[in-house]
Amino acid sequence: MMLGLGLIIWKSNQLPVVYLILIICLPISIEIEILKGFAMHLPSEFITGSLIIAFFLGLLNSRKENSSQLRLSMLHPNPQFSSNQKTIESPRKALAVFLAFPIPLLWIASFFVPVLFSEMTLISIKFLIVNAAYVTIFYYGGMAIFTSSKQIETRILLYCMAFLPLTFWGWYNFQVFEYNPVTLPGIFRPFYRDHTIFGAVAAMIFGFSLGLSIKNKYWIPIALLAIFAVLLSGSRAATISLSLPIIGVFMYYFPKLKWAIPLMLIGASVYLFPNIKNDYTAKIDALD
Description:
14 helices; two-stranded antiparallel sheet; single chain; 2 domains; mainly alpha; 65% helix
């Protein structure tokens, strides 16, 4: 089925459309055990596998192209390239795109070493395949399909539209359990197995949306909803990380006060560190 869908995507030249569908499916996918000991997040990982097939079929087909200025145009129906973008000079070589942008490829190659020395070889191979698949689609495929900042913004917006409604799903579950903090780790299931993962994603969405709100004010409600999602998750690390985008925007609007932020952070560290150290020491002493 995955191979068939990949062939259909490639033949119909609909990789950009299916890519956007994948973005929407990512946060709402559910882990389902396909075979004993083998699970997949559906439908996102099924779509990812199909896109990889279409991607490599496009690379193989690129050998037939004759254009000297091609940047994976076989994957995009209406490619638009800017003059400052890196192009593929030799489309006859299917691996030219990887060689033109080698750093992620080297990162994937680094996973082969743990496979050789792993005591759980099958798990290591699965980890390698999953990472290679996601880098191929979301890095190389993303560069091929989306060539402007506006298109990248659209991708983020689509992900937010699919992710943020899960906040109300978690809120509903939390209310069912009468806001018992013990139940926090499971309120976002089956979409997120842990509340800290949800909080981390919400914090990243807040950073993106707050930064984009400088030019487009419609990102402000998304940023506010992301704050609510982080607070609902109960993740302290995610809550603390909210301060970084706020500091960045503050420095953007008040560049003359940019040195005040580091001084405030240093002062806060000097003030808080002894208290944190004393609390930690007291807990250790209590254990003894």
